[in-house]
Amino acid sequence: MKRQRNLKLSSNKCPIYPCRFINILNIPKIKSLIEDIFCFAEYTDCQRFLRHQMHLEVPEDLWPIERISISEVLKNIGFSFGKEIERYKRFFQKFKKSEYFKNVILKTLTSIEKGIYNKRLNFFRAFFEKYYEELFIKKFNNRFFLKMAYLILKENIDEAIFDSSFLVYSTFLSENMYLWSLQNIKNSILRARILSSFTKLNTLALIFIKRNVKLIKEIEEIKKTRTYIFNIKNELYIDPLTKVLNRRFLENYKDDILKNYSHILVLDIDHFKKINDTYGHQIGDLVLQSVCKILKKLLRKKDLIIRYGGEEFILAINVPDDETALKVAERIRKAIENTLITINDDKIRITVSIGISKINPNKSFEEIFLLADKALYEAKRSGRNKVVFKKEFEESY
Fold this sequence. Notes:
This protein folds into three domains: 2-75, no CATH class; 79-217; 247-389, Reverse transcriptase/Diguanylate cyclase domain (Alpha-Beta Plaits), CATH 3.30.70. The protein is 63% helix and 9% strand. The two termini are 36 Å apart. The model is unreliable at 1-11 (pLDDT under 50). It is built from 16 helices and seven strands. It has helices at residues 2-9, 20-24, 28-39, 47-53, 70-77, 81-97, 99-114, 121-137, 143-154, 159-184, 188-237, 247-260, 272-279, 281-298, 322-337, 365-381, and strands at 263-269, 304-309, 312-317, 340-343, 346-349, 352-358, 387-389. By secondary structure, the protein is of the alpha+beta class.
């Protein structure tokens, strides 16, 4: 339901958008998911926004649905990927160029092939080679975790299959790294430190990659759930006859209307009972549908058209001043008056009366609506097919 969605999103852009997390996301699909759910909708649920509001540090890698970031975890345990990798990078590079590393890939893929997941051999070959290159050799940053997690999800790799395959890979990796170090690093203390660093990097990287897989899945589930709820609301909030919003929507979103719109228009079709009595209810329904089609053409997507009851409609518009609101109402009145509705071989002309009131944030919706309703009554009483703007302490103009 586009109108309801626009109501929710029209003023709900996060004040800190684009934050550092959005800027480091280099995967459009995930970026789009997070923007839709948090940046342009419920940003008050975002942990980044909440921290910002409390004047707390907001790490660039903090996810909107997590209270702690990877960088904070590493800080707490006193470990730095960047420093650790830079310290031993030359050894990691030499290991990758050796026959030992080729042996790792070969043994891993052979083991996987014996299992039930041989259809994924190409993925695992590319993943393991990229994993080592990205983690141990390239300039490390937090995008690594996101990138590797996305590769797993993109290929729809089952968690159990990935875990068992990575276990095989990391076992061969550690074994061959140890054998290589015995031949190439004579200093036993240095060798121990390199192997220790190697193990820590590999273990922590896997933990954080899986964490990001979990977070991406959760974000996708949130999106699915909200889409499902949105679709249910679409059915709940749309009038089946006219395809505009219904009274239930008004009851649930009165506060949003007060925040996002400037004027309320109450529109009533003149002599509608006479149309029903003369031509029947089917023709009456056709008139209602025709009026709504005209309203949709004349109003913007972000404006609201609500069927309040019978032949009465509430319109919520956002315009800079009262004069513009009057012009909008007059344009609607004239367009409906000038539209002929074909009934069998007859063409009938209908008119509407419109009452307007300006939204006052200090007043309730009921008070503002009552003012517009009084203006409508005045328009009816003074001859119909008219627009009346009613202000507090004023009659009309």
